[in-house]
Amino acid sequence: MATARAHTNIALVKYWGKRDQKLILPETDSLSLTLDEFYTTTTVEFDEQLTADQVTINDRLLDKKNSQKVRNFLDLVRQRSGESAYARVTSHNHVPTAAGLASSASAFAALAGAASAAAGMSLDRRDLSRLARRGSGSATRSIYGGLVEWRKGDDDLTSYANPIMEDVSFNIEMLAILIDTKKKKVSSRYGMRQSVATSPYYKVWPEIVAHDMVAIKQAILAHDIDAIGQIAETNALRMHALTLSADPGFTYFNSDTLRAMNAVRTLRESGINCYFTIDAGPNVKVIYDQRNRQPIYDALTKQFGKERLVVSKPGSGIKIWND
Ligand code: ADP
Ligand code: DP6
Ligand code: CO
Predict the structure, then answer these.
(1) pTM surpassing 0.90?
(2) Rounded distance, CA 315 to CA 107, Å?
(3) Which residue in 30, 202, 214, 273 has a CA-CA distance of 20 to 30 Å to 79?
(4) Which residues line ligand 1 (CB under 6 A)?
(5) CATH number of 2-168
(6) What is the pLDDT of residues 114-139, one digit of tens each?
(7) Which portions of the chain are predicted below pLDDT 70?
């Protein structure tokens, strides 16, 4: 039996598209910030007495359909470790599930850590990152804390994350505006597949990401939060253009998402630097220098209410316990 805790991460340069659906090999590199406030804790126990895998998330037992991704992942761990028993998986999300706040990132990183340890494997962080990737692409990056890069690689062996700056030595902070924490209608998996298959703009996306990766790494080296924020905001808007331009077109934005984007722009016009990024869901994350937190927090409180705001510092990498 083993337990792992992994934090979510929010991409500043997004992963949006796979070149291999089964191995989850991405079309592009990506880069993210791991967050302290949002995480998943998962316990795995292989038990000879069980006649099927049993998956409980937030105290609710999942049915066969809803536990499919987790059961496939456990099959992979069994195949690699030689463990033959079914498992009991108990997971708690300290993050809204399937709402565009990267629950799949913390979930599959934690599951990779707990399941591999419970099966007696002792993987280094690179192999954990590769294993987590098989559950959800964004989970590849949640093995590490701070600023993390996922190089797309060429195959299963070479596609994994690397920490760029695990202990973030400058004042970057992220504030999540919880606009809607219900389960989204279009999963990240389906949304990105539709974008790759049908958006005529997808062909320029790899060039955009290649350019943004170089620029953001320079900005990180320079501790330049404004440059990081600008790159992240533009990159996010270009990712969302791939959903709008799909056929049929769709969007993860709702009217409050637009309201939050405009609030950030208005703050900027008034001289308070901050930037937004948005994942596959309506919730908006604001990037800024923590020394600007107060006016940003006050302005957003007026529009959205304190109970919808979560301020987060950079978070740490995965922790695994053998219970
Ligand atoms: P998100 O924006 O939250 O990452 P995704 O569509 O990428 O949304 O992934 C959501 C899916 O991740 C869920 O439907 C579920 O299959 C899986 N998931 C979320 N939390 C957990 C968990 N704690 N354990 C196992 N799987 C999870
Ligand atoms: C917009 O990692 O959730 O958050 O690999 O199919 O599980 P699957 O998708 P997922 O997609 C994340 C998309 C994103 C951008 C990012 O995290 O890089
Ligand atoms: Co996800």
Answers:
(1) yes
(2) 15
(3) 30
(4) 40, 57, 69-70, 91, 93, 97-104, 107, 111, 136, 187-188, 279-281
(5) 3.30.230.10
(6) 999 999 999 999 999 999 999 999 99
(7) none
